[in-house]
UniProtKB/TrEMBL annotation:
Gene3D superfamilies, per database record: Leucine-rich Repeat Variant (1.25.10.10)
Protein name: Vacuolar protein 14 C-terminal Fig4-binding domain-containing protein
Sequence ranges of Basic and acidic residues compositional bias: 690-704
Lineage of producing organism: Eukaryota, Viridiplantae, Streptophyta, Embryophyta, Tracheophyta
Chain positions covered by the region annotation Disordered: 667-734
Biased composition (Polar residues): 667-678
Domain Vacuolar protein 14 C-terminal Fig4-binding: start-end pairs: 429-608
C-alpha cells in the first residue's frame, strides 16, 4: 500500500475507484499530469510503478469500479507519456485487451474507450499488438451490449486507419487469423471480417489477392447468409477480387478452382451463380494451370446446365462450350480417364440436358483422343448400353452416335451388336420402345447391310427361340418400312439377279427362319415368289396362331404401301408372275374371312386382270371360264415367263436347302411351344393326372413318325409337284 501511495496520492487513488464517472475522470487527469511531471524529470522507474499499481490494484481488481478506474488510468498514463509511450506499451496494452472479456459490460465499454485513446497516442507502434487486438475486436463485434458494440466499432475504424498508413503491418501473420474466423456464422462477426478484407485489399502495398485462396471459401459461404446486407458486402468483395484476377498476370487458379467446384453445388442459387461465373472466367483465363482440374470443373458444370435458374444454365452452357473447345493433350496433364469418369456419372443424372452434354463430351473425346478413350472403354461401356433405355429420344440418338464411333473398329463392332442383342433379350420393353430407333440409327451410322448381317448371324444361333422370333419380326418390320433402309431393300430386290443381293438374302434367311411371316416378307421383297408360295404351303396348324395372324395382318397392310408398289404393278401381268398370285392367294386363304386384312387383300386380288399380257387368247378364255384355281395355276407353270427371266440367277441360291433350314427351325419352335403347353398343364394338375398324361403322351409318340418326317411329309404334300420332271434343264428346282 505504501508503494501505491508513493506512486499515486491517496485522494487520486480513492477517486479512481469511485462509482461516479466524474470523480474517476478527474483522478485520471491527475494521473496524466503526474506522469507528465515524471517524464520531465526522467523518473522512468516511478512511471513503471504507477503503471503496476494501476494494473494490480485496479485493472485486475475483483471490484468493477476499480477495474473501470484502472482502464481510465492506463489510458491517462499513455496520454501523459505521449511520444515516450511506446516503451511502456508492453505493460499497458495487455491488461486492457484482457478486459475485453470482462463479465461486466461497462468494463468492456471502458476497455474499448481506453484502447481507443491509447491507439490515438501511439498510432503505428500499436501494430505490434494488432493480432491480439483484431481477435478481441472480432469478439466484441458480436457483443450482447449495444454500447459495447458501438465503442468497438469506433475502435475498429481507428485501428483500420492505423493499419492502412503503417508499413509495419504483416499480412502473412494476419491471414491465418482471418482464415480461422471466416466460417463463423454470427452476422456481426461476418460484417466485421468482410470490412477488414475490403479495407486491406484497398491498400496498394498489401497483396490480398495472393492470399485469396485462404479466405475465398469463407466469402462464398457468406453469399447464402440470411442478411441481405452481408450477402451484398460479400458479393461486392468477390466482384472486386474477380476484377483484380482479370488484371493480374499471376494468379493461383488451382487452389481456388477446388473451392469453386464445391460451391457450384451449393443449395443456394446466388452462391451457385457466383461460383459458376467465377469458373467461367477461370476457364478463359486459367490456361495450363487448370488442366489437371478440368475433370473437377466439368463435374461442377454439367449439373448446372440443368439448373432451375436460367442465369445459371446460361453461364454453365457457355463455360461448358469454352472448356470443350480448349485444345490440350494428355502429355500436358489432361486426364482423359477422369473426364470420362465424370461424364459416365452424369449419365445417371435425372436431367436430360445434363445427360446430353455428358454424351457430347464422350463423343468429343472419342474424336480427339480416340486411343485413350478406347483404353477406358470397359469402364464406360455398360453405362452407355444402359443409356439406350433412356426415356429421352435425343439421349438415345446421342448414345448411338457414341457407340457408332467406337464400333468403327471391327473388334468393337461385334461387341456392340452382341451387347445390344443381349440388352434387347434382357429387357423386352427396350425392344418395344427403342428397338426401331436404335436399329435405324445404327444403320445410318454404321452401314445398314453390315448391321443387319451381324444381327442375323447372332440371332441365327439364339437359344431363346421366343426372343429370336420377336427380334426377327422387329427387324423385318424395320427393313420393310424404314426410309434409312431403302438401299438395303433395293439390294434385296435384286437377289435373283445380282450376287450382292443374293448373298444378303442368304445371310438374312438363316435368322429370318425364326418367323414364318418374316420369311414370307423377305421372299416378297426379294421377288422369290415361288419360294414364298412353298413356304406358305409348308405351314401346319400349329404355326397359324394369334401372333402369326397379327404379323400377317401387318404384312397385308404393308403390301398397300409405296414400298411394295413394284409388287402390285406385277399383278398386271398374272401370266408372267403366276407364283406371285399363288402366294397372295395362299395368304388370303390363311386369313379369317371377317378380318380387315382379308377384305383388303381380296379387294386387291379382284383388281387383277383375267388376261395375261404374255399369253394368248386361249389363256384368257381358260382363265375366265371358271377353271379351278389350282388348275389355273398349274396350267400356267408350263409356260411361266417368270422362270424364263430368273432361271439363271437361281444358281447361287439353293432354295431346297433354304426350305429345309426353315422347316428345321420351325420344328424347334413347335417342339418348344408344345413343351410350354405341356408344362403349363402339368403344373396345374394333380400328381396323379401328371402320371396319366405322361403315359398317354409316350404311347402316342411311339405311333408317330419323327417330327422331321412329319414336317417333311407336310411340306411334300402341300408343295406343288416338282417342276423338274416337266421342265427342261435350267429351270428352277426345289
Amino acid at each position: 500500500m505504501s508503494d501505491a501511495l508513493s506512486a499515486i496520492p491517496a485522494a487520486v487513488h480513492r477517486n479512481l475507484s469511485d462509482k461516479l464517472y466524474e470523480k474517476r475522470k478527474n483522478a485520471a487527469i491527475e494521473i496524466e499530469n503526474t506522469v507528465k511531471l515524471l517524464i520531465a524529470a526522467g523518473d522512468h522507474d516511478k512511471i513503471s510503478k504507477v503503471i503496476d499499481v494501476l494494473i494490480k490494484e485496479f485493472a485486475k481488481s475483483p471490484q468493477a469500479n476499480h477495474r473501470k478506474g484502472g482502464l481510465i488510468g492506463l489510458a491517462a498514463v499513455t496520454v501523459g507519456l505521449a511520444t515516450e509511450a511506446a516503451q511502456y506499451l508492453e505493460q499497458i496494452v495487455p491488461p486492457v485487451i484482457d478486459s475485453f472479456t470482462d463479465q461486466d459490460s461497462r468494463v468492456r465499454y471502458y476497455a474499448c474507450e481506453a484502447l481507443y485513446n491509447i491507439a490515438k497516442v501511439v498510432r503505428g507502434e500499436f501494430i505490434l499488438f494488432f493480432n491480439k487486438i483484431f481477435d478481441a475486436l472480432c469478439k466484441l463485434s458480436a457483443d450482447s451490449d449495444a454500447n459495447v458494440q458501438s465503442a468497438a466499432h469506433l475502435l475498429d475504424r481507428l485501428v483500420k486507419d492505423i493499419v492502412t498508413e503503417s508499413d509495419q503491418f504483416s499480412i502473412e501473420e494476419f491471414i491465418p487469423l482471418l482464415k480461422e474466423r471466416m466460417n463463423v456464422l454470427n452476422p456481426y462477426v461476418r460484417q466485421f471480417l468482410v470490412g477488414w478484407i475490403t479495407v486491406l485489399d484497398s491498400v496498394p502495398d498489401i497483396d490480398m489477392l495472393g492470399f485469396l485462396p485462404d479466405f475465398l471459401d469463407g466469402l462464398f459461404n457468406m453469399l447464402s447468409d440470411s442478411s441481405h446486407e452481408i450477402r451484398q458486402q460479400a458479393d461486392s468483395a468477390l466482384s472486386e477480387f474477380l476484377q483484380e484476377i482479370k488484371n493480374s498476370p499471376s494468379v493461383d487458379y488451382g487452389r481456388m478452382a477446388e473451392i469453386l467446384v464445391q460451391r457450384a453445388s451449393s443449395s443456394d442459387e446466388f452462391t451457385r451463380l457466383t461460383a459458376i461465373t467465377w469458373i467461367n472466367e477461370f476457364v478463359k483465363l486459367g490456361g495450363d494451370q487448370l488442366v489437371r482440374y478440368y475433370a473437377d470443373i466439368l463435374g461442377a458444370i454439367l449439373p448446372c446446365i440443368s439448373d432451375k435458374e436460367e442465369k445459371i444454365r446460361v453461364v454453365a452452357r457457355e463455360t461448358n462450350e469454352e472448356l470443350r473447345s480448349i485444345h490440350v493433350e494428355p502429355s500436358d496433364g489432361f486426364d482423359v480417364g477422369a473426364i470420362l469418369s465424370v461424364a459416365r456419372r452424369q449419365l445417371s443424372s435425372d436431367h436430360e440436358a445434363t445427360r446430353i452434354e455428358a454424351l457430347n463430351w464422350i463423343s468429343t473425346l472419342l474424336n480427339k483422343h480416340r486411343t485413350e478413350v478406347l483404353c477406358f472403354l470397359n469402364d464406360i461401356f455398360d453405362t452407355l448400353l444402359k443409356a439406350l433405355s433412356d426415356s429421352s429420344d435425343d439421349v438415345v440418338l446421342l448414345v448411338l452416335e457414341v457407340h457408332a464411333g467406337v464400333a468403327k473398329d471391327p473388334q468393337y463392332f461385334r461387341h456392340l451388336i452382341v451387347f445390344l442383342v443381349h440388352n434387347f433379350r434382357a429387357d423386352n420393353s427396350l425392344l418395344e420402345r427403342r428397338g426401331a430407333i436404335i436399329v435405324r440409327r445404327l444403320c445410318v451410322l454404321l452401314d445398314a447391310e453390315r448391321v443387319y448381317r451381324e444381327l442375323s448371324t447372332i440371332l441365327e444361333g439364339e437359344d431363346n427361340l421366343d426372343f429370336a422370333s420377336t427380334m426377327v419380326q422387329a427387324l423385318n418390320l424395320i427393313l420393310l418400312t424404314a426410309p434409312e433402309l431403302s438401299k438395303l431393300r433395293g439390294l434385296l430386290k435384286g437377289s435373283l439377279i445380282n450376287r450382292e443381293g443374293r448373298e444378303l438374302f442368304v445371310a438374312l434367311y438363316a435368322s429370318w427362319c425364326h418367323s414364318p411371316m418374316a420369311i414370307i416378307s423377305l421372299c416378297l421383297l426379294a421377288q422369290a415368289y415361288q419360294h414364298a408360295s412353298v413356304v406358305i404351303q409348308s405351314l401346319v396348324e400349329e404355326d397359324i396362331n394369334v401372333k402369326f395372324l397379327v404379323q400377317l395382318d401387318k404384312l397385308i397392310r404393308l403390301l398397300e404401301t409405296p414400298i411394295f408398289t413394284y409388287l402390285r404393278l406385277q399383278l398386271l401381268e398374272p401370266g408372267r408372275y403366276t407364283w406371285l398370285l399363288k402366294t397372295l392367294y395362299g395368304l388370303l386363304m390363311l386369313l379369317p374371312q371377317q378380318s380387315a386384312a382379308f377384305k383388303i387383300l381380296r379387294t386387291r386380288l379382284k383388281t387383277v386382270p383375267t388376261y395375261s399380257f404374255s399369253g394368248g387368247g386361249n389363256q384368257i378364255s381358260r382363265a375366265s371360264s371358271g377353271v379351278p384355281f389350282s388348275q389355273y395355276m398349274n396350267h400356267h407353270e408350263d409356260d411361266d415367263a417368270e422362270d424364263i427371266n430368273i432361271t439363271s440367277s437361281h444358281q447361287g441360291i439353293n432354295f431346297a436347302a433354304r426350305l429345309q433350314q426353315f422347316e428345321n427351325v420351325q420344328s424347334q419352335h413347335r417342339v418348344q411351344a408344345r413343351n410350354n403347353v405341356k408344362y403349363t398343364y402339368t403344373t396345374s394338375s394333380s400328381s396323379a393326372s401328371k402320371e396319366v398324361k405322361r403315359s398317354e403322351d409316350e404311347e402316342e409318340e411311339q405311333h408317330k413318325p419323327p417330327p422331321s418326317s412329319r414336317s417333311s411329309s407336310v411340306a411334300d404334300n402341300s408343295r406343288p409337284p416338282s417342276r423338274s420332271s416337266r421342265k427342261g434343264p435350267g429351270q428352277l428346282q426345289l
